[in-house]
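Minutes, project huddle
Topic: does the predicted pose make sense with cytidine-5'-diphosphate bound?
PN asked that the exact inputs be recorded in the minutes so nobody has to dig through chat later. Recorded below.
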Amino acid sequence: MIKKQITIAIDGYSACGKSTLAKDLAKKLSFIFIDSGAMYRGVALYCLQNNLFNADGTPKQVEIIQALKNITLSFQLINDNNCLILNGKNVEELIRGTEVAAVVSKIATIKEVRVKLVMKQQIMGANGGIVMEGRDIGSVVFPKAEFKLFITASQEIRAQRRYLELKSKGIEAKINEISSNLAERDLMDSSRKESPLIQVADAIVMDNSKLTREEQLDFVLNLIRNLV
Ligand code: CDP
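Predicted holo structure (tokens), as shared on screen:
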């Protein structure tokens, strides 16, 4: 049976398993999967590599806005892994590190950065059949998405999950530092002026603190049964 090419928007706090669920769903439905956070991480990496932060850690806004025309982002499937390509280079590993995590939410507050990335995300999802995850997908990128999910999980569990994820990639980080980074980003993401992280009224809320990977997938598949 041919599936309806709907748009699935997943939003939520840092490290609550949005990517895992979005990937699993996309695979199950043969939809495209887009991790919009990877794109913000890509711009943040470019800024780190090109000295676009002031000594006090604030982004050099004017220079960054000017540099946006030099930043090209795309995704490529390499060894079954969806990798972010920044100006022709696979930066998937680099964007997951703690250096990028420490600055990405500052970059994500810049309006012009958001306008550029949102436009690209809307083009990628123009034909539907997509699962996109991030912070503003149900509110700004695809406000008309057929299915919207807002994920949450306890801070402790999220820090633990991110710790294990980084460890499996060979990245060493302290759990208390990860936890502070998540809290800091959640606060910045929820309180920024430009498209803050919000739970839209038509989103279904899922707390996955106590759900396994399979359970969270089943939960959503059940909910969208009549939509696809
Ligand atoms: O994987 P994790 O939940 O840690 O974060 P991410 O999805 O990779 O996103 C990294 C950062 O990008 C977030 O903390 C936000 O500051 C920003 N972001 C955003 O502003 N809007 C999005 N749609 C996605 C990410």
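Observations noted during the meeting:
- The first strand starts at residue 7 and ends at 12.
- Residues 175-191 form the longest helix (17 residues).
No decisions taken; revisit at the next huddle.
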